[in-house]
C-alpha cells in the first residue's frame, strides 16, 4: 500500500512539473501587431501618436472652454486617445497583412478566410486551376448563393471564371452565381477590399438551401491540385477585441 501511495505521489509530481503554456496578454498581442506593421509601414508610429495627441488635445481644450475644467478633459481624453490610436493601429495592421500576401498564389483564399458575415464557407483548394499561368478560381457558398473568385490577370482570369461558372450552373440551376476577379486590373477587386465586397452581398437563400447547394457542389468536386499557401490575414492581423484590452 505504501508503495502505491509513493507511486501516485511521484506521478502527481511529474504531472505538476510539466511546463504550462502561458496565456498571451493583450498588450503582447498589441506589441506583436505593432512590430509586424512597422516592418512594412514605418509611419505607423507617427500615425498612432498623432491620433492619440490630437484626441487628448481636443478633449483638454473642450474641458478648458466649458468651465475651465481642463484636468477633467485631460482625464477623459487619455482613454479616448488610446482607443483612437488602437483603431489606427488595427487598420494599418490589416493593410500591412494584405500587403505581405498580395501577389502570392492562394492570397485570394487567405483573404476569403476573413469573411465573417453571410454564412459563407469556402473550399480550401481551388475549383479551377491553370497550370501554365497559375491562374486560380476559388468557390464559396453562402446566403447570397455561389461565389466564384478568380485570381490572375483580367483577360485570362475571365475565361477561366466563365468556364467554371457554366460548369457550376449545370449542378445548381436556379441558384444565384456571382463572379469576382481579385486583382489590381480594371474591373477587378483589390485584395484589401475583397472581404468587404463579399460581406455586402445580399442574402437570397435560407440555411437549408445553403446546405443543399453545398452538398451538390461537393459532389462536383474541384481542381484537386496543391498550391503554395500564403499568409492568412486572420492570423497576421491583430485581434480587435485584444487590441481593446478585452
UniProtKB/TrEMBL annotation:
This is DUF4191 domain-containing protein. Residues 1-21, 224-246 are annotated as: Disordered. Coiled coil: none annotated. It comes from the Bacteria. Keywords: Membrane, Transmembrane, Transmembrane helix. The chain crosses the membrane at residues 44-64, 70-89. Pfam families: DUF4191. Residues 232-246 have a biased composition (Basic and acidic residues). It comes from Luteimicrobium xylanilyticum.
Amino acid at each position: 500500500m505504501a508503495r502505491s501511495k509513493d507511486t501516485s505521489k511521484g506521478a502527481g509530481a511529474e504531472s505538476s512539473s510539466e511546463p504550462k503554456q502561458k496565456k498571451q496578454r493583450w498588450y503582447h498581442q498589441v506589441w506583436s501587431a505593432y512590430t509586424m506593421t512597422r516592418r512594412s509601414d514605418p509611419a505607423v508610429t507617427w500615425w498612432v501618436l498623432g491620433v492619440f495627441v490630437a484626441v487628448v488635445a481636443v478633449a483638454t481644450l473642450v474641458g478648458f472652454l466649458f468651465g475651465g475644467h481642463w484636468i477633467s478633459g485631460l482625464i477623459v481624453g487619455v482613454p479616448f486617445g488610446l482607443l483612437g490610436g488602437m483603431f489606427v493601429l488595427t487598420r494599418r495592421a490589416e493593410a500591412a497583412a494584405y500587403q505581405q500576401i498580395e501577389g502570392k498564389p492562394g492570397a485570394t483564399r487567405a483573404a476569403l478566410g476573413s469573411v465573417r458575415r453571410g454564412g459563407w464557407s469556402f473550399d480550401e483548394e481551388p475549383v479551377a486551376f491553370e497550370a501554365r499561368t497559375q491562374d486560380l478560381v476559388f468557390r464559396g457558398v453562402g446566403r447570397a448563393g455561389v461565389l466564384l473568385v478568380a485570381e490572375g490577370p483580367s483577360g485570362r482570369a475571365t475565361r477561366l471564371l466563365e468556364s467554371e461558372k457554366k460548369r457550376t450552373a449545370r449542378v445548381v440551376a436556379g441558384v444565384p452565381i456571382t463572379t469576382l476577379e481579385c486583382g489590381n486590373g480594371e474591373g477587378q477587386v483589390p485584395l484589401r477590399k475583397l472581404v468587404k465586397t463579399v460581406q455586402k452581398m445580399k442574402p437570397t437563400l435560407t440555411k437549408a438551401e445553403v446546405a443543399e447547394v453545398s452538398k451538390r457542389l461537393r459532389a462536383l468536386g474541384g481542381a484537386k491540385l496543391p498550391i503554395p499557401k500564403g499568409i492568412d490575414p486572420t492570423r497576421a492581423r491583430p485581434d480587435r477585441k485584444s487590441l481593446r484590452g478585452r
